[in-house]
Amino acid sequence: MKMAVLAFVLALFATTVGGAGASNFWANCNYAAPASNLNLTRDGAQTYSYTAAYDGYQWGGGCWNNNDVDEGWGDPPMDVSTHGEGADCSGLVFKTWKESENTADAGKYYWNPLRNVHGPYTAASFRDGVGAPNGLISKAYAGVMDGFASGTHVGLIFFRGSGGWDQIIEAKCEACGTNINSQTYRSQSAYGGIRRIGWTG
Amino acid sequence: MKRSRRRRRLLGGALAGGLAGIVTGAVIATAAPRAHQQGKGGPDPAAMIDAAHVPPFLTLPGEEVTLRYAIVCPTAGTAPLAEACNASGDVDVRAGSGGPFTRLPLRRTEDSTDGRYAVDVPAWIAASGAGFTYYAVLRNDDTGASITVPSGGADAPQRSLPLDRAVTVRLGPHRFGGVAVAADRVVDAPWGAGLGAVGLGGSPGGLRVGPSSFDVAGDGTVVVLDSANSRLERWTKADVSAVHVDVDGAADDMGLAPDGTAYVVEGGRAPVVRHLARDGRALATEPLVDRTWSQLRMGPDGPLVQEEPSEQWLGAAPGLSREKQARSGRAGRTLRDGSEIVVLRTGVGELRVARVLGSRVRAAWRILSDTPLGEVQLAEPSGSGVAVVVKTYTDTADEFLVLVLDAHGVARQFSVPSAEWASGAPLARFRLLGSSLYRLGSTPDGAFVDRYDLEVKQ
Which residues in chain B are closer than 8 Å to A79, comparing Cβ atoms? Predict the structure, then answer.
């Protein structure tokens, strides 16, 4: 009986605690080429970013399945090898803005949510307007799907709030996941205004 | 023989136990992620629909009113997420707050910067002395999915009131750097986990998350929601104490009830309001109606939460059904005397504030600034007027602007440094108790609560 209990405990540990953060969600992802796509509307981008909501956060990641379940929840932070579900903050912006992995290419490319790609940009490089598709905007005039970026974080405007804050869609942190949060990035001097060049409507 | 049988029994027991452990572990591992989920339509993209809208809570005489909506939904076809969806909707609108609604179809516009779908409110409705009320039903024409905004629909429509006699305040350009000195520092807490310290969360090299919110009890006790350490810390003049609370460690907002219990709104995936006893025990949990919250304040009958996409203040007291929560939606925050305070930040540098009783504006202010205005952190009755704290900013600087407004305009005005080194709940930086304004701030050394005196010297 003792042996059975001991084996039960060891097996339980191995499959739960020991296995935490080892979901390897990336086994569900693909590496297909993106589809060239001339349309880049703000509400189309809004809908695309919305599919990432509630599907988790993965540092260095960019793959999610839109089923509202974070299948890599609780992964250790800042470890890309955990292969969990979701994008990180800059990966979400890159895919939502239909950007190219080539920073000199300002073209528009549709990446399926399950296409695992992070893109070449960090929050700081978005803040600095690095790359052909990325520009800067005065924060007071930023609208839907423009964004705010600091040296450590970037989020996109889902919509303005009535009291001067914004609803921001953001891949925030491992524990926070990806969500639409009310935020005051617009008025914080640590954040700059960013925009995708070439909106079509 | 006996030893051999015993060895077989041991082996069999170990195998059975191990197998049971693996099966149990697999069940737990499969179930665990689901504890953190929330639906936005589930895995079926066709069911996905959401919306956003900023209501014109307060309008000026003669102002043309266009209602704009963003509709978030997938298209039909093989790449349903690559383009804007094929949507439509109707707005039911009426003059005043009673009688039948007039149905107006939304038109699809070429630009979605502020919402692609729009309708102009007819002048005879927009100019009504009693204001107007409205709600929208928005549809994805490809899938049939629909959403009503605000959540209460005809039972709690959005309300817009006219500002006929607003006091206009012209602030001019803001001069950064001339900040006021606090009267008192009532909390000075280093980062840490010990009693009297506050936790610093977030990720290394990434976002820093400090104490997420705070409130001030009637006796002046300051209660800080120290989410990273899962506790409420109480600072009195004599000492500091703490109780453990089960909160999610994110940027939650909180309010103190008169009986000393606390309400905390938390969660991104499935937002809830938690009612916590003075000793930290969980008394009740109530899910919110809408997907996003922006702030929690105490109303006369319990906690009120401003929620989106309704963009209304909804009752969130434990035990309220979803239907009752949705039907409780108001444009303004209800105060203890039954009046409401309504806030609208519009344009780049304009703020409109009104005190409303019934459906009538009793006092109103229109504040115009040459420097952009950001979020309104606080709007509370103060004497015969209103105290307002609003962020003012450029692309490189920011400060909080404190305004005490009375019947003549600005009775008192000063600036407060932003001190937002660590993030917290978005609209939880200030609280007002009597004529004392409390502000929560943070620096690389820790967090603090300062007190400013708002009394206007005659």
Answer: none
Q: Report which of residues B38 and B328 the model is more confident about.
A: B328
Q: What is the 3-state secondary structure (H, E, C) of B290-327?
A: CCEEEEEEEECCEEEEEEECCCEEEECCCCCCHHHHHH
- Interface pTM (ipTM) of the complex? 0.90
CA nearest B319: which of B267, B252, B263? Answer: B263
Q: Is A128 on the interface with B (CB under 8 A)?
A: no
Contact between chains at B375 and A187 (C-beta distance less than 8 A): yes
Residues of A in contact with B114 (CB under 8 A): 143-144, 160
pLDDT band with cut points at 50, 70 and 90 for residue B6: low
Which residues lie closer than 8 Å to B347 by C-beta, 6 or more apart? none
Q: What is the mean pLDDT of residues A93-100?
A: 98
Q: How many CA atoms lie within 13 A of B177 on its CB side?
A: 2
CB spacing of B292 vs A180 below 8 angstroms: yes
Question: Is the Cβ pair A153, B50 closer than 8 Å?
Answer: no
Mean pLDDT of all residues in chain A?
88
A132 touches chain B (CB under 8 A): no
| Strand B201-202 with B184-190, pairing | unpaired
CB atoms A43 and B17 under 8 Å? no
**pLDDT, tens digit (0-9, with 9 covering 90-100), for B94-123:** 999 999 999 999 999 999 999 999 999 999
- Which residues on chain B are in Cβ contact (under 8 Å) with A147? none
Residues A157 and A150: their CA atoms lie apart, in Å, by 14
- Residue B15, CB-side half-sphere exposure with 13 Å CA sphere: 6
The dihedral through the CA atoms of A71, A76, A78, A83 has a sign that is: negative
Query: pLDDT-derived band of residue B24, with 50, 70 and 90 as boundaries?
Result: very low
Chain A residue numbers with beta carbons less than 8 Å from the beta carbon of B390 are 164
CA neighbours within 13 Å on the CB side: how many for B263? 26
Distance, in angstroms, between B238 CA and closest chain A CA?
A: 34
Q: In the predicted model, what is the mean pLDDT of residues A31-49?
A: 93
Residue that the structure tokens 């980062």 belong to: B191
CA distances for B445 relative to A25, B197, B199, B204, B399, angstroms: 39, 11, 12, 16, 20
